[in-house]
Design goal:
- Helix content is 55%, strand content 7%.
- By secondary structure, the chain is mainly α.
- It has a two-stranded antiparallel sheet with strand order 1-2.
- Helix 1 crosses helix 2.
- The longest helix has 33 residues.
- It is elongated, with a radius of gyration of 17 Å.
- The relative contact order is 0.19.
Length: 152
């Protein structure tokens, strides 16, 4: 069940493709945010030197720097050819669209933004939704037409 780049991908109907996806997503989330924290450090150093060059103007990026790094991280990895972030790859899952098209940068960034917004409003309930929906889909998956599938 691998996703071919540049091709449409039919979402599997077999229940085994969605078995254990919810718990794998939680662990993938932890791995991804550790990687984002590691990537934030060189980005902060880069902004520091840009701030020196621009006489302090670039230092206004610091309050939003973690968000910028996270958006670029998920946009480039989830919207890439593997359709999975490194944390998702480590946990053996990938994202797919229900219409068969590939996830692009815009859908990937909308996916993470909706996750943050919904998580801030429905903190504990966002994962409970996955227990009651088909294919263990969360609210932002339902809104964007995506689904997490097992690749292993």
């Amino acid at each position: 069940m691998s996703i071919e780049p540049n091709n449409t991908y039919a979402v599997p109907q077999d229940w085994r493709a969605y078995s254990g996806v919810l718990s794998r997503r939680v662990f993938a989330f932890c791995i991804d945010y550790l990687l984002i924290a590691v990537l934030w450090v060189p980005a902060a150093v880069l902004v520091f030197f840009l701030g020196v060059i621009t006489l302090g103007l670039a230092w206004f990026l610091y309050p939003a720097l973690y968000i910028i790094v996270a958006l670029l991280y998920f946009g480039m990895t989830l919207g890439g050819s593997s359709q999975a972030s490194p944390g998702m790859k480590a946990m053996g899952i990938a994202m797919a669209r229900t219409d068969g098209r590939q996830i692009d940068f815009l859908i990937a960034t909308a996916h993470i933004v909706l996750f943050w917004v919904l998580n801030s409003v429905l903190t504990p309930l966002i994962l409970l939704v996955g227990l009651f929906t088909d294919r263990s889909r969360l609210i932002h998956d339902l809104l964007l037409g995506t689904v997490a599938i097992r690749t292993s």
